[in-house]
Amino acid sequence: MRQLPVTEKLKQILDPKKSSIKARLFVTREDGITVYDTIQDTTTTSVAALVSGVWQASEALMGLVKKDQEVMEFRLGFDTSSQGIYLFPFALTGKRYFLGAIYNDCLNPGQLKRNVALIKEEMDLLFKHEGEEVNLKKATPPQREGFLFKDISDEEIDRLFSLGGF
After folding, report:
1. Which residues pair with 91 in a beta bridge?
2. I want to staple 34 with a disulfide (CB 3.0 to 4.6 A). Which of 4, 48, 55, 106 is the partner?
3. DSSP state of 29
4. For residue 102, how many C-alpha atoms fall within 13 Å in the half-sphere facing its CB?
5. What CATH number is given to the structural domain containing 60?
6. Quick check: is 13 in a domain?
7. Structural domain range at position 70
8. Count of domains in the chain?
9. What's the pLDDT tens digit per position in 64-104?
10. Strands (DSSP E) along the chain, which ranges?
11. Among the listed residues 89, 11, 104, the one whose alpha carbon sits nearest the alpha carbon of residue 51
């Protein structure tokens, strides 16, 4: 499995499991790029970008509680008793990725979460044996030399991200 690109490695692991897990399985890179998705449609790019953002926001919040906690030990769940999203970080080729499941009308979400956790463990074991797993503690962001926009007001930012646009 060593000579295959990341996407092919993940397909070999996840494709056989997608029929037994009644959820949308996906893998995204830390920068919000989709690597694998069982449902390729217009939401694929949005899911990847949102997953990356929500994970980074969660890390920032956890930094307020535990300063030096290993983020690879966490998982993120946002769910009710029958629908939700479940995320796990994992390391591959020196980079951090997220394995996730989005589910709806699930009869046994506990079992689904367990199955996703087992897939994550399987990937960790496979990639660790290949010598690809690295310690990915939360890295300090690079220092900025400048800003993209100078002298932009809060009102301009609000208008930019409002539904009406400019």
Report:
1. 96
2. 48
3. E
4. 12
5. 3.30.450.30
6. yes
7. 6-160
8. 1
9. 887 766 666 778 888 888 899 999 888 887 788 899 999 99
10. 24-29, 34-37, 76-79, 84-92, 95-103
11. 89
